[in-house]
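Entry for 9MR complex. Fields follow.
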Amino acid sequence: AAAAATAAVRVNQVGYLPDGPKRATVVTTAAQSLTWQLRNASGTVVASGSTVPHGTDTPSGQSLQVADFSSYREPGAGYVLAVDGSSSVPFDIRADLYDALRSDSMAFFHHQRSGIAIDASLVGSAYARPAGHLGVAPNKGDVSVPCQATVCDYTQDVRGGWYDAGDHGKYVVNGGISAWLVVGSFERAKRAGQEQALGDSTLRVPERGNGTPDVLDEARWELDFLMRMQVPEGRPYAGMAFHKVHDAAWTGMPMRPDQDPQARELHRPSTAATLNLAAAAAQCARVFRPYDSAYADRCLSAARRAWTAAQANPALYAPASDSTGGGAYDDTRVTDEFYWAAAELYATTGESAYRDAVTSSPWHTSSDAFSAYGFGWADTAALGRLTLATVPNGLPATDVARVRASVTSAADVHLSRMAAQGYAVPTPADGYFWGSNGNIADNAIVMAVAGELTGDARYRTGALEAMDYLLGRNALGRSYVTGYGETSAQNQHHRVWAHQLDASLPHPPAGSLAGGANSGLQDPVALEKLAGCAPAACYIDDIGSYSTNEVAINWNAPLAWLAAYAAERPAG
Ligand code: 9MR
């Protein structure tokens, strides 16, 4: 008689690249190593070996073993990995594994666009919707949004941009870092000579065929919005960026953007938002230059004005309490934002004032610029380092070498942490907080850049294994990306893709990344359903669990970056 299945075999449910790492994690109570068998679609065993016991894995609380079948490279579909009477879900081995995710994860931003109709001819009828927040009733924004009266008494046109997440807020700190990653994915691909894959007519965007790379067209939608958030000349705080625009009160769900009846509020400027604008706009000036020099000039002038205004107002902080109708995105430590903005302005212009701001920043030499927990909207020093490490600049060679070494040593920390974990995740056991998948993806980017700088294949392995985690090799055996994998997340918190609440509405489109495990249990559903969870298992695919299962631009941006990276066919 066949033995009862005792193991669970967790794999990247999409599959593996022929030349990439191929490891699976087995949940089992067995203490001794077990035999694994790789079977092809017809059931033939094509490879076999022994698992390596890991013992109890701290973040998941599970007893784990690891199977490594990296040396098997034969492309095919429908493989399964069998261990101890249990089989994984079927997966592929193929070189074009990430091609679809490259465009789907980037298309997420088009779906999130505010101020433009999302057209059925590009997205299909299920995802088409009228334009939101163009001042058409019942919308009350965003063409003319009143600024909060205590600091300003005028209205501003802040149409466009991307909705942040499942809500209809638009936040400059999060928009800046997301646009930076989207543009950065193109900038990196270009360094690798592989930007064609992100070029014109590669994405389902309305601008396809306009001669500009589609990834840049998509980013421009957000960059235009970010620049609209800049306080005009002649006003108090001129050159600063308003922190955010969102509804006066949280709306219910579901709620299409064009149906939002709430008053919209423009919240007072902040230093952090201003510096994120400066950084993103400075990068814009550099990367758009060959395609649209007038736009590059506009970006550069916005970036310079933002920088100057932030210097004049270095401590204007968004209050943590300001979270009615939208997130607070509060941040009272902005020295890292100054560093990032200076780095972008310096890399773009080469001017000595910006160089001095870079070299005099404590973040230029601090060993804390890279955190084990990843970079993010509140932690931006790493972004400055990544730019100075990869974009040719006038810093002394020894300084550039030191910056580059800081990238690789951060990547080394991630690699050694992964090696010590049963699921090989580049985050510490206490790194499962709100948006952990975003931080994990960000840390994978650090490894990918280290690989670019050194040519050392271990870093690519690390970045790809982080993708394995997101796509199913994890404590829950679940892919966090809608439409990718047998058991993918599909009820992410979103006001339009709310199938769980109304069957006539769609699930999120393929390529949407859930925020991921969050041991903080910061929403009612998580509190009720996840009590006692191990950190890496604190996730539920329920639309009400916004603290584990929302989507957000700052999480899909690193996913898109990584998908583009993973989709490249390395030379040789
Ligand atoms: O990603 C944000 C996370 O770091 C914060 O802990 C959390 C609570 O403030 O907010 C997250 O951002 C949300 C934002 O406030 C509103 N739009 C949805 C974002 C993702 O959940």
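NOTE: The chain has a mean pLDDT of 96.
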